[in-house]
Amino acid sequence: xxxxxxxxxxxxxxxxxxxxxxxxxxxxxxxxxxxxxxxxxxxxxxxxxxxxxxxxxxxxxxxxxxxxxxxxxxxxxxxxxxxxxxxxxxxxxxxxxxxxxxxxxxxxxxxxxxxxxxxx
Length: 120
Fold this sequence. Notes:
Elements: H1 3-29, H2 49-52, E1 56-60, E2 66-67, E3 70-71, H3 72-78, E4 82-88, E5 106-108, E6 113-115, E7 117-118
Parallel strand pairs: 1-4, 4-7
Antiparallel strand pairs: 2-3, 5-6
């Protein structure tokens, strides 16, 4: 591919990106929301973290309950939140149980927190 063609393609890409950004800004002013703009509630720690400080917290979560790539329990513990109970569905808190397997109360080995009530 010759040099001039590469420059033309690069300019087309740049112009296209500028148009997409401009369109997104117009859409936002009209109330249109893109999937890339949506954040899960757990990811918005700035809205709730201060309300959990100095409280005993119970979490309803499974193995997919994450803030970014870290499990919500691990994330909140790192931020100093006192988690006293973890409630989890059929496959267990860390996703270690098979479908239909009875999961008894246990201690989470990773954080030594009591997995006290299983929610089916």
